[in-house]
Structures are given as C-alpha cells and as structure tokens.
Specification:
The protein is α/β, with parallel strands linked by helices and 318 residues long. The chain contains eight helices and eight strands.
Length: 318
C-alpha cells in the first residue's frame, strides 16, 4: 500500500489550545503560527519587532497574540516568561540564526549560541511549569556535524567560526531535548520534549552566508511551507518523547515529515547531562531576585543526573 504524504490538513482541531512560537514574525515560525491558528489554536507569536509581527497576521483567520521576545536577550526571555499566566499546551522554540559574524549579546554571550540555544534553554525552563503537552525544539540536520566544547560553550577562547558555531548550537538543542526528556520521565510527567528539523528550507536564514547557495538549488531543498510541516507534525501528532521529526527524503534535507533519529552525538546521555549543568551555570542570573525566579526549573527541575536506571530517556524512534 502506498504511504500517503502528511499534510497540514491532518492537523487535528486545536480549539482551546494555546501554542507559543518564537521567531514567528516571518519564515517557518510565521507559517507555523498561521497553520496552527487556522486549526483553532490561540497562536502566541514571540517576536523582536512587534509592529512587523502584527502586520504579518493582520486580517488572517484565527486567534493571534503578538508579544515582544528576543531570545538572544535573557532579560527579554525572563520578562516574557514572567508575564505568562495560565496553561501553555505547546512551546515551539523556532527562533534561530545561522552562520552570522562574531558578536556578543547584551548579556555578553556569543549571539549565535544565545539565539539558538541559551535563550531557548532559559525560556523552556521558565515556562515548563505551564506546559501541558510538549516542547518542540527546532534543530538542523547539521547537528550531526556539531561538536560541543563544554569548556568554551560560549566561544570565548576559541577562534570563532560561524558555521561551526551554528552546528554546535544545533547539537546543543538536540542534547537539551534528550536531557529534558530524561528529567520529565524521572518526574513521571506526561509532557514531551520533541525535535523538529525542517531540512533545508528556502528561507532567509542563510541569506548572508555562503551556505545560501543551496537556496538556489530547489531540487535539494524544501519550500518554506514544506519545511514547516516538520514543525507542525512535531507539535500536533502523537509522537514519543524525544522523537526526531524531519524530512524523509535523501539525507533528511527535503521531503515530507517522518519520524527519524538524531545523530549519534545527539544521543549521548552523559554529554547531555553535563551540557545541562554547564548551561545552567552559564545562564544563572547574577541578581538575587532574578535567581529566585529562574532557580525552580533551571537548577532543579527533574532528578539530578545519576548512574541509576532512571537516567534512561524515552527511546528515540528507529
């Protein structure tokens, strides 16, 4: 029997559900927000430019709530989380940058690492007490080439290389999902941590980079709408904890969404646990008031790492 392709039409009725999508002012995030709102969800767009975000959804069917959020700025992340009240069914950590020049954020972090990993790590932990269903982390097939340096996660001592930093940040995202799922399982939580890769989608993400050449080779890439299907599948379908959703075509670069498997480095439980600890220390607030707000989840959510059997995360799909 021929397997049918998964499409947006298979998204269930999401009436009454609330979804936060970061980086939703354009690209995959905006496409995802629009589709979820069409299915009945209240789509909360976390955007850096409020006016642009409002214009992007003006007149569209569905419920939209546009809020300021810059995931590279931990002050903005904490403000967004502090303003949240009520249940949050799904958090989609979509915001990202790729192969950008070396730069530091207001907090002093490497901008690419902060945008792709550190900010989403803090946001996830601060909102986790509200999440009822799942957290979706948007990663990349390039995580398979990533390498994590726990002694210099923030590119302070190593020579900076834009693509190496991108690959490392996307591997960090995969490891974050692995360790988060372990902690959720250890708490007996029904909340899931899920990974989504859009493959190579023809968006503006790499427009400034030499890697943008792939956007001029359509047969190797997904359209933005097709790339967003992986995010929508991961956010709405019944998948196991730490599932990896990505294109089913050659090399996971294009095609329709299917369940796959993260790269070998992304399944390293010991590295995932150590990365969590290093990250929590790196982003720990310096003021006592902020530390009190962050500490509940970043420092202690779930069980600590151990050698016991409860360290086992949900089994990734084959």
């Amino acid at each position: 029997m021929t397997k049918t392709k998964w499409t947006e039409n298979e998204i269930p009725d999401l009436t009454g559900r609330t979804v936060v999508i970061t980086g939703a002012g354009r690209g995959l995030g905006l496409i995802t927000a629009r589709a979820l709102a069409r299915a009945g969800a209240r789509a909360v767009l976390g955007v850096r430019d409020l006016e642009r975000g409002r214009r992007a959804v003006a007149g569209l069917p569905g419920r939209f709530d546009v809020r300021p959020l810059d995931v590279a700025d931990l002050g903005s992340v904490r403000a967004f989380a502090a303003a949240w009240s009520g249940d949050l069914d799904v958090l989609i950590n979509n915001a990202g940058v790729m192969d950008i020049p070396a730069a530091r954020t207001a907090d002093g972090f490497d901008r690419q690492t902060a945008t792709n990993y550190l900010g989403p790590f803090v946001l996830t932990n601060l909102l986790l007490g509200h999440v009822t269903d799942r957290v979706v982390h948007v990663t990349s097939q390039l995580h398979r080439q990533g390498r994590i340096d726990l002694t210099d996660l923030d590119w302070r001592t190593r020579p900076y290389h834009g693509m190496a930093a991108y690959r490392a940040s996307k591997l960090a995202v995969v490891l974050h999902s692995l360790e988060l799922q372990r902690r959720l399982d250890a708490q007996g939580s029904a909340v899931r941590s899920v990974l989504a890769s859009p493959g190579i989608a023809r968006t503006g993400l790499a427009a400034h980079s030499r890697s943008d050449i792939v956007n001029r080779v359509p047969f190797l890439t997904n359209s933005p709408e097709r790339g967003a299907l992986s995010l929508l599948y991961a956010a709405t379908q019944d998948v196991p904890g730490n599932a990896y959703v990505g294109p089913g075509g050659l090399g996971g670069l294009r095609g329709d969404p299917t369940l796959g498997r993260a790269g070998k480095n992304g399944l390293d439980e010991e590295l995932a646990g150590r990365l969590w600890d290093v990250t929590a220390e790196l982003v720990a607030p310096r003021s006592p008031d902020a530390a009190a707000d962050d500490g509940v989840y970043i420092c202690s959510y779930g069980s600590p790492r151990s050698a016991g059997p409860d360290r086992r995360p949900a089994t990734p799909p084959a």
